[in-house]
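>> received
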Amino acid sequence: MELKKLGETGLESDKLIKYNGEPEVGSTIDKKDLIAVINEMEKFNDERYNHHETIKKFEDIFSKRVGNQYAVSVSSCAVGIDMVLKYLSLNNADEVLSCAINFHGTHLSIINTGAKLVLVEANQDLNIDVDDLARKITPNTKAIVVTHMNGVSCDMKRIRELIKGTDIKIIEDAARSLGSMYHDSAVGNNSWACVYSFQYKKMITTLGEGGMIVTNDRQLLTALQRYRSFGLGENWGTNYKMTSVQAAMGLSQLKRLDEFVNNRRILARYRTERIRQSLEEFVCPKDDSTYYNSYYLYTILVPSVWGKSYRDELILRLNDIGIKCVIANPPTYQKNEFIRMNCDTSRTVLSEKLGDRIICLPIHPSMTTIENEFLVEAFIKNAKFIYKKYFGGK
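>> returned
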């Protein structure tokens, strides 16, 4: 395929541009979704209408899908993390550990508790490095927020073994990993609590915003239900509720989750095969019998000798032909001054180096085979150009 002759591929440049590295809408909306929303809205005219029924149905079906007893729908994933952390009643003598490579909202939630945010190095999957985690656990550690980055599960078995016999709570942040699996088990049922996102960009959406908390802890369930609805007359609370119309959309979208994930995996398998054949020093996303990747993002690490400058040049070259990539994510304190001023002051040097190598190629369940092939060939061609220009490669 001649990359400079975009028209000959049957593609339009704005078609490729629409698939950013993190598309604005991560799923697709079909007529069944629209009908579900309209049907729910039409119920408003019935004086017997009970909006709690649709919300409860979404929670029940979702909890079964991911293998937990209980689910609590909320207005966003970030709010869900806030609520779970609030239950722990943390103070400034407590520590909460979290991977440095992360979405900044997760770290803001930890800082909001008043506890000390302790950053842990990332591994090559951009997930928390369990060896570094072991070094940073202290008697003051109250919780570990484990973020499954970009569709790949963390090594939950080792993390659970690490805290066995302690009172440390594991909170999973699966905002980007709905549909992923670990040892044939859905991501989200390997801990005390797990929080998911239904924001626009995520694997499924509930009309742009929304989230879900799952747990097997009945006491936590009761507390969360109170927090999200003004305390229910028992304790403090505010309004963190999801609407019934959002829940109707969630129920409809959840039916197609397997389709969305399967489409992403087909695209990703082709990419990985081609890139590994042509660019041996590049690190493609993990996906094997233990780690079933849902590919929220298709995340590649450029060679360590490239570093940030050559990675950035590759991104610019791809951008020039309509392929927009993102970097998701460098250590949060590098981009967020508030986090830098409110976390453990030690740098995570290894994570910074990994952050300089990240490039996320556009991926979306509605992307066609032709689009995917064009993207991969463009990536390989431009990467080889940089190799030849700066490193004397072929």
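>> The longest helix spans residues 369-391.
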